[in-house]
Structures are given as structure tokens and as C-alpha cells.
Design goal:
Blueprint lengths: L3 H12 L11 H26 L7 H23 L1 E5 L2 E6 L5 E5 L4 E8 L1 H6 L1 E8 L7 E7 H13 L14 E5 L2 H11 L2 H18 L1 H9 L3 H25 L3 E5 L2 E6 L4 E7 L5 E7 H6 L1 E7 L20 E7 L3 H8 L3 H5 L4 E2 L5 H26 L7 H20 L1 E4 L3 E6 L3 E8 L5 E6 L1 H6 L3 E6 L2 E4 L5 H10 L4 E4 L1
Parallel strand pairs: 18-21
Antiparallel strand pairs: 1-2, 2-3, 4-5, 4-10, 5-6, 7-8, 8-9, 9-10, 11-12, 11-17, 12-13, 14-15, 15-16, 16-17, 18-19, 19-20
Amino acid sequence: MSDPRAGGREAGLERGADEWKRLEPASLAINLVPNLWRTLRSTWPLLLALVLGGGVQIGRDVLVVLLFLLVSLARTAVHFLTLRYRMAAEKLEIRSGLFGRQNRVIDPAHIQNIELLQNPLHRLFGLVELRLETAGEGGAEGLLSAISASEAKALQTALRRRRARPSVDDADDRGEELERNGVIEVLGHGVAEARAGAALIVYGVAQEIAREFWPEALAETLERDGAGAVLLAVFLSLGYVWSVGGALVRYHGFRLLRSQDGLRTESGLLTRRRVHIPAGRVQLLRLDESVLRRVMGYATVHIETAGANGAGGDPDDGQSTSSEAIIPMVAQELLPETLDAVLPGVAESDRLPWLPSAPLAFIPAVIRGVLRWTLFLWLGGHFLLPALGLGRMDELAGIGTLFGAWTGWRDWGTAGWKLSSELLVVRRGFLSRQTTLLPRRKVQSVHIVQGPTQRVFGLWSVQVWVAGARLETPELTEEEAARVFARMGGGGRSEA
């Protein structure tokens, strides 16, 4: 049975269908904060240059910063004053812009994602943000940044019922729970996501600032035995803390639910994010199974549609969010069942054996591994270690050669592919293993490609294109590539 309150909300929406509506006045406060934050993020090189260039000068430099802040205030005001929306002819129409006017008409049949977002400021004023993503935009094509919760609910229900399933009840608060992540899983996701490279960059910037303002103190500190290594360990630890904290804020209370009209994810500690993916809109699944995740017995699953594919946002409000739904951690033993519930056909492909890469693909894989790790460890030996006060270790280049050859060999051995009646499945990488599952019904074009290195060894790859994404098989022999091309109903052959 349908919720009578939902019916009442939709009836109210229908009565005022042709009336232009506007954002709530509180959107001025709600949108100002992210706009200011975006300005600060975009101008931090200028602020850093001012500091390193001799400090901020009262007058010219302060006026430059104030100018950027005033731009944020102006953007927020223009967004509120000019944005209007309405339901007309069973479609959502949004107008915005002052000098450059924009009129967007969104057909419910083309919607890939429906997202409801509520951060602390939204909750304070009893408002929500509604985002609609289609396959035709690189971000949120329809964005209403601050409307009442009842208005958002009515819009969401009306858009759902104008799609191909008019009899579906409002299942927003119901559905079968497919996956739930507790605090331990979310914290594990944060640990696995931590990036040491970012911590090294921050460490290097901090050293440059210290050399600029406190050169003697820095030299004295680095002269102590192991002091540089301790400082680096501190920065790496802070990087992990930042990653774990960010995962907890973003994915706390994560749930994945399935109802008659599609999938829904819910997550967030401070900002609660609810993403609805209509039935049949899943474009591909991507599994991240790094070594650390495999040791923990988990995988991270990305559910992608033909929407923004990770590049959300709107030019009017300066906010951004990923269009894809992410399951932070799925236990390996539950992975086949969960994937098959999200994307039918996974169970069939799971029964098929992995087909390997071509034998000669071993050679370019090893060459790539050697070049990558030799260069990385050589740079570490010449630049990073001296900065830590540990001297130079030219032997690291030799270690990189051996380690690179081993990882290249493992990458070649891990690469594999499957082709079932429903899915193309491709697996790559050893240290950062990634598996992609692509429904064959979503394929738009297929190409056989051969790059310069592949020509030397007689290797080929098959590229499969879908809306907003591309999947490439491991390196194959010409005969294998031709068979895959024929089975996929290919449409092109090229040399890169």
C-alpha cells in the first residue's frame, strides 16, 4: 500500500505544477559556507605565495583576498535570486543565471541518480538538497540546494512515478537491506584508503616553510639521529588519522537497500547522503581489492551509472559530490551474493574460469614494473632520504629493479577476463587489484586497439565503451582479440 502522506504531497505538487518555485531563504546561509570553502581551496596557492613571499601586506594583498570572498558572496546571492523550478508537462524545469541564463528540462525517464543530501545546516533549517543526475551531464544536471523536506519528498515521488514504473509505491523508507557497514568496517575502509603520497607532499611543504622562517632550528632538528624519520612518521600517522576520520564522517551508518524501483544507499555522520539509483541504471561495478583490503578480507565496491561518474557539482553553488554509490567494505565471502543482487548476471560469470593475458604480455608488464619502481626508489634515495637526515642510498635503484620485476610478473599473472552472456569482467593489478564488471547490454561501441609497445610483441587489446566510461581487456593475442571483438559485436579497429 502507498503512503497516504506521500500521495498528499504529490497531489499538492500537481496542483501547483505550473507555478515557478524558488529556494528557501535559508539557502543564502547554507550555500555561503561551501562557496567560501571553495574559494579558500582555489586560492590557497595565492595565500601560500603571500606568506612565503614575505608575509601578508595590509592593503593590496588583503584586498585581493577580500575580492575573492566578495565573489563568493555574489555567487550565493545570484544563485538564490535567479533559480526557479517547476514541474511542467511531467518534466522538471529549472532556470538559473543572471547574465548567462540557463534553462534545463529534465525528463524523469533519463534520470540516472536521485540524491538527497542533508548537512548540519540543512537540518538546522529543516531543509534538504536534491540532486538529479542524467547521462547527458558531467555533474548534477538538476540541483535544488535548499528546499523543504516535504517538497523534496514530493518531487522525488513525482519523478519516480513518471518513469516506466507508474504503479510503484513510494518505497523510500522500505526495501530489502543488502549490506550494512558498522564502525569497524568503516574504519577499515579509512585505513585502506589512506594515501602516503599526500602525507609526503604535506611534509615537503612543511619543510619548505620551516626553511623559509626557521632555517637554523630546522637544521638543528635534522642533525639529531633519526629526527627526520620521526617527523615523517608523524606526518604519515596524521595522514592515516585524516583518512580514517574522513571515512567515518562520510560512511557512518552505511546501508545498501533494494526495492522495486532500484537501489538506495544511505550514509554520513554529519551530512546524511541518500542516493537512489533507478532499476536498470547501473552502468558498471568496480571492485577495489588492494593488498591491505585482501588481508582484512574485504573489498570496496563502486556502483557507477551514466551520470557524472564521480565528478558531481554545480557551477552555481560550488558544491561537489560523487555521483557513484560506494559500498565501503564487503566481506569477500559475501561478495558474489551482494554483487549479483546489485547487478544481475554476476552469479553466471562467477562460475566461469578466468582467462589469462597473452603469454608475451609478461615482457611489457615486467618492463613497466621495473621502470616505475626503479624511478620511484631512485628519487627516494636522492631526495627523500637526505631530507630526512638519513643520507643517500643509491642501492635503492637496484632494489627497485628487483621489486619492479616481481610486481610486473605478478600483475601479468593477476590480469584476467571473462565474457558471459550478460557481463564482461576484467581484472587487473596485484598490489592494487581492480575488477570491473560491465553489462553487455550497456555497450555502445567496441574497438580493437594496438599501441606501439603492443606492436613489438604482437599484442592487442579490446576497448569497450559505455556512456561515460571505457573498459579495456588485458593484452591478448590477435586471435583472442578478434574472438572477443566478434562476440561483443564490435564496431571499430584502430592503432594507438
